[in-house]
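Following up on my earlier message about succinic acid. Here are the inputs again, as you asked, copied directly from the submission form:
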Amino acid sequence: MSISQGFRSLPGYFEPAAQIRLVEAIRCVIADAPLYVPAMPKTGKQMSVRMTNCGSLGWVTDKERGYRYQAVHPVTERPWPAIPCALLDLWSGVAGYPAPPEACLINYYSHAARMGSHRDADEQDFAAPVVSVSLGDDAVFHVGGPGRNDPKTRMTLRSGDVVVLGGDARLAYHGIDKMLPGTSSLLGEGGRFNLTLRRVTKPGS
Ligand code: SIN
Ligand code: FE2
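Thanks, got it. Here's what our run produced:
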């Protein structure tokens, strides 16, 4: 599917057995770096997803200090766990970028969660793509262009799917309109994990 050249959808990239292994790895990350409730800058309004990270840097947001990357979990104040090997392999396979990802944001969507339209723009190097993995229940995803009001394309993201926002789509608006509960049995509790891999700093900087 091509919306803009830099947008790539790789449906079913992870087969069911690989999805199970990936969920186990994510649960190990969460055991060390618990999901927490992120809050919007300034208003402090709570987001509907639960969040954590792995990697040398993690993306966090709170009322006082807003969107940023930092090396430690905001609640435990411990360094984030390492990015699981299967995700580093994914990056090597699809990112087309000469350095590894530094951040893997983990978002957990319960049935009522959503993600408003936004751009991933807190990184220093937009030459690196954003690589995203879906695990669990289906979700309706939209992707548009660099302008908030650019036309949007909607698609259902299913467990095991990978999408890549790179090139001219790197700064495209995107978000999750709604969850489709009961569409996957991967996570016993239902809901969905979305993992987004990102390079934050310019290599060598
Ligand atoms: C995000 O853009 O942070 C999440 C996208 C998704 O859940 O698929
Ligand atoms: Fe995003």
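One observation from looking it over: Residues 107, 115, 132, 141, 157, 174, 176, 194, 196 surround succinic acid (ligand 1) (CB under 6 Å). Hope that helps, and feel free to reply on this thread.
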